[in-house]
Prior knowledge:
By secondary structure, the protein is an alpha/beta fold.
Amino acid sequence: MTRPANDTFLRALLKEPTTHTPVWLMRQAGRYLPEYRETRARAGSFMQLCTNPGLACEVTLQPLSRFDLDAAILFSDILTIPDAMGLGLYFTDGEGPRFERPLREEWAIRDLSAPDPWDHLRYVMDAVAEIRRALNNSLPLIGFSGSPYTLACYMVEGASSTDYRRIKGMLYDRPDLLHHILSVTADAVTAYLNAQIESGAQAVMIFDSWGGSLSPAAYREFSLAYMQRIVDKLIKNRDGERVPSIVFTKGGGLWLEAIAEIGCDAVGLDWTIDIGEARRRVGDRVSLQGNIDPAVLFASPETIACEARKVLDAYGPGATGHVFNLGHGISQFTPPDHVKALVDAVHEHSRMLRLKGA
Ligand SMILES: Cc1c2[nH]c(c1CCC(=O)O)Cc1[nH]c(c(CCC(=O)O)c1C)Cc1[nH]c(c(CCC(=O)O)c1C)Cc1[nH]c(c(C)c1CCC(=O)O)C2
């Protein structure tokens, strides 16, 4: 496949040299942008926005026309899979996602099956294809999914949770039931990501937002093992090339070496670990994505630039292997011009470091 005109993001994931450090931001399309709020109001609801490929494409492109970002990410949500499994996803203002039929009963768990992405999730594949056409090979497009464990948290709890008591109760009392949910969900995620690759996604990311709430042993058994199964089964693109994958476990800093072993190309880092230390620990096995504290964006543009330089300096010398990002999704209260200060500082400082040969 011809690489996009700006291929720095793909190059960094594959550890090829780059002229600057590529940057994109988790949740770069979202409520902090007034034009997003306008499109969302026109769509009616968040799910109507996600299920309309034309509107999903429109909001995917919005941050790209404001900022000099190095990648686009599909506008969708991780909860499309449990919705397609029949759990009845809905969003309430201020309370986040909820399911009408959370997975609690053994019979419902035994009934669970992986949805065919070309049938129940075709709107996502249509959005991927439409975004690729609109990008016209200017930038790479990232596809994504939630990790099986993170999806299971929402499926079993029925909403966001602070203590995960239902899923953790199941994990310790009925590990067989949780393994069944995770196994079906891992098959669903594999088919979903592969369908996104067939539709044109040029990299894929697995968001394991809640894996970090597990004990080390439970993390390996209930989260990491299933992400490994998915990464193992990712297909190549139509031209027979490897599609790089990124695995992001929020709160996974203690387990970096284990994550780097599963066969992914890059590991996402939250802001609780020094990126230089992370790099020393994983060596050449994987690239790293991250990891500035998203709250830095509430500081002044000068401070933001200074903090961005600290992350680039902490990563250290070498012209590749780092994709700059936030340590978690951007806050809806972020001033858009602060994002510009961040993106421009990353480009400027990393170009300077390359010229100095650092
Ligand atoms: C846990 C999780 C979810 N969704 C996602 C995760 C994993 C990442 C993380 O840990 O944050 C992933 C996600 N959600 C969204 C994207 C779009 C792509 C991007 O720009 O990065 C991505 C990659 C859009 C969204 N997904 C959601 C919004 C806000 C919806 C709105 O317009 O009201 C957006 C832009 C809704 C959503 N979806 C989810 C929650 C908890 C919420 C409510 C969050 C909130 O209210 O801030 C589940």
